[in-house]
Specification:
- With about 140 residues, this protein is mainly beta.
- The protein has one domain: Pnp Oxidase, Chain A (Roll), CATH 2.30.110.
- The chain is built from 1 helix and 10 strands.
- The strands form 2 sheets. Strands 1, 2, 3, 6, 7, 8, 9 and 10 form an 8-stranded antiparallel β-sheet that branches. Strands 4-5 form a two-stranded antiparallel sheet.
- Strand 1 and strand 2 (about 20) form a beta hairpin.
- The longest helix is centred in the middle third of the chain and has 10 residues, at about 70-80.
- The radius of gyration is 20 Å and the shape is extended.
- The protein starts with 10 loop residues before the first strand and ends with a strand.
- The model has no long low-confidence stretch (mean pLDDT about 90).
């Protein structure tokens, strides 16, 4: 049976249960297993490679600038010592609007905010970037 692939342009991001449809790019849905190497005494033919802890990448969200500064404020609160973690979900849809996958980031908080880059020679939209660290990633 053939497996369908889906376009990557149909997604929403939910932050704290509120849908945010304005993001143009999401990256960092990634898990990586650390590998521990163990050298066995008297055996020089190979090194044991054992699975270790799982690491997750930071999630990077990009969106066109709006008149809302909620992401900058969220980052600024953290910089002042007020940690307000929020659950974040990235939801992928098929062309008919049915949910295909949901990635839940538990207890996410901003670790980097990047404002727009300006150029008088470019007519591209101004984009802000928010990078989030999180406790764990789940696929629901």
């Amino acid at each position: 049976m053939p497996v369908d692939s889906y376009p990557n342009c149909r997604f929403y991001v939910e932050i704290g249960g509120m849908a945010q449809a304005v993001f143009t790019e999401v990256s960092g849905l990634q898990l990586e297993m650390e590998v521990m190497e163990y050298q066995e005494g008297g055996n020089n033919d190979f090194v044991h490679r054992l699975p270790g802890r799982t690491k997750s990448s930071n999630l990077t969200l990009k969106r066109g600038m709006t008149n809302s500064n909620e992401f900058f404020q969220w980052y600024a609160e953290l910089a002042q010592g007020k940690i307000t973690p929020k659950n974040v979900s990235v939801v992928m849809y098929d062309v008919t609007g049915n949910v295909l996958a949901r990635w839940n980031l538990i207890k996410a908080y901003p670790v980097k905010w990047i404002g727009p880059q300006f150029s008088a020679h470019d007519a591209a939209a101004a984009v802000e970037t928010l990078e989030l660290a999180h406790e764990r990633l789940e696929l629901a």
